[in-house]
Amino acid sequence: MGRKSNRKKSNSPKGNKQTDAASLARRILQFLDNNFGQEFNPKQIIKSLEIRDSITKGGVEPILHKLVENGSISKTPRNYFSSNQEPGFITGTVDNVNPRFAYVIPDDPKVSDGDILVKEADLKQALDGDRVRIMVYPTKGRTGRVEGKVLEILERDRDEFVGRVEISPRFAFVVPDFKKMHKDIFVHRGDLMGAEHNEKVIVKLTEWREGDKNPTGKVTRVLGKAGLHEVEIHSIMAEFGLPFEYPEQPDQEANAISEEISKKEIQSRRDYRDITTFTIDPVDAKDFDDAISFKKMENGHFEVGIHIADVTHYVKPKTELEKEAFNRATSVYLVDRTIPMLPERLSNGLCSLRPNEDKLTFACVFEIDDQAKIHNHWIGRTIIHSDRRFAYEDAQQNIDDQSGDFFEELTTLNELAKKVRKKRFDHGAVNFETVEVKFKLDEKGTPLGLMVKERKDIHKMIEEFMLLANKYVAEFIFKKRSGADTFVYRTHDSPDPEKLETFSNFAKRFGHQIEIGETKISAGLNKLMDEIQGKPEQNVLEQLAIRSMAKAKYTTEPKGHFGLAFAHYTHFTSPIRRYPDMMVHRLLEHYLDGGKSPDPESWEQKCVHSSEREKRAADAERASIKYKQVEYMSLAEEKDYEGIVSGVTEWGVFVEITETKCEGMIRVQDMTDDYYDFDEKNMRLIGSRSKKMITLGDKVMVRVVNTDIDRRTIDLEFADNDEKKSRSRAFN
Predict the structure, then answer these.
(1) pLDDT bracket for residue 20 (50, 70, 90)
(2) Which of the following CATH numbers is that of domain 88-155: 2.60.120.620, 3.40.190.290, 3.40.50.360, 2.40.50.140?
(3) How far apart are CA 664 and CA 626, in angstroms?
(4) 19-83: which CATH topology?
(5) What is the Cα–Cα distance from 488 to 472, expressed in whole angstroms?
(6) Which of 190-194, 403-407, 500-504, 614-618 has the lowest mean pLDDT?
(7) Cα separation, 714 vs 712, whole angstroms
(8) Looking at residue 14, what is its pLDDT?
């Protein structure tokens, strides 16, 4: 009775058998295709497919022979069967998303329909970031995605990890901090270098035999007790491969450079030492790599000079100093320190445009009228003598009060910058104003307070003139031979329409409409950025808008910059802290001196390296901020916080706390009021019983239940103060 009641009636039993046979044939074929290169007998196939009923078991062998007849599979004399399909073989980079599977991102995106899913058992001990060669299965897996297996690890991305030591009587493990390293590292007690339980260490992988669940490693550096500020910052530095000190030889080279500027050098440059010049930087900055000169001209126009530290005058090719600068490629700014690209002797001394000192510079000088129309410009080497070092706050105060040093010059420059800025936006530039947090730390590094950095007119003024100089330098080189000369450009592709559509739908949840037609993207985004200023959703929407955009990069290809709406753009203005700017200075000098275009290949390789180093620096900076946010929330008052749902996944809900800009997660497994299903298309969780929804953009009330400094995570729960407040939505 039970069997009959559960079976659908049919007027065509034969048709059902045919359908069942076809379904079984597809399962068998997919199994053999996904195990390309292996042979199976019927019993092994039955076991692998978990076929339990006798009728279906009896149908396996006839179907196998039928598949052999039509050429879909092959059969050996021993009655073993294998796939006839031809797999694909590609190379790519592992993105190890979780302990169960990873994606391989193809080197050439054209060879595959998206990233290739690789199950943990098929990773062949490949780790996140490794370059691998994989076999792509001929048919898609159960997930509907292209799947594959790693055949060979071509290049390890890293063999050192930072983690916390856990010691037992007979052995020890290092639990890695890196979230995408899902294996603990076994360490023989004799290889601990004296590390004690719960200390942070750097461990180097020494062996990972096939079949071993965990790799084996050896401690190379003991950082100290987990949780201490200096130890955690050093952990972040080690995690991202940042150097702890400057090597001796390049440091010695820097110290040996003479401070003296010869008369011959001065005569080869335009002399701006008698023209009003000043620097404007953060109050705690020491590396001043840009200065502005200002002069009223007899025709009523203004001469505005953007003077940039001439780093390449001191850092010569093929020196150890040059090699180290290239390797670092950028200065890194963590919450409590700067890891400089150049040694202090150069970054804070010789090259820094300090006041009351003669300094060598590369400049872009503009003749500009009171409507910010540029009539002429000149690019070349200069020598300057800065009259004043301003902190941003001081310069802004002089403009606001209309008094103090150079307040008239500052006011005029500010008015010109506003007009230049307006023209840029009228031309299609996108106004991305991201929220930045800054911590007030005590002498031990403990966060005492958290503040959001405020961008005032003076910040925008400096930014606008730097953008102008970068743009004109790029256009100057491009126009020489219509882009045929090798040069380093900063490019930014147009956004992917699908990502933009997703972002637009998300913004609608806050009541914001964005026009995303091809010619209206910039205007629509700028309108949104204006609307959200000062609102709780500002940071979430700004971050998501940036994520929906393409990533800017360095390249020798003379493409445009979507975000700035410039046909050509480069980085010229920060050579003390960015290697690409040094590359630009070298090429610019080469062309100004009449040199021919060099081969682009080596310069493109340097561009790729610089883009990779830029990403590493950004990731490290975010990690240091996240660490302080976690520590800050661990010390914060126990109370309910207002937040916004900033992300929804199958395993949890991310919430950004509005007051502190800190993001935490509420795990699905901890949401015990209901069983929640993940609706990926609409980025929401739906309660299977209550039908309550948790959606991107929801305003919620949460409380902190746990903080983990090692993993830099904040665990939250929905505040449930009374029965009227559902655990999925505190208020709308």
Answers:
(1) confident
(2) 2.40.50.140
(3) 10
(4) Arc Repressor Mutant, subunit A (1.10.10)
(5) 13
(6) 500-504
(7) 7
(8) 39
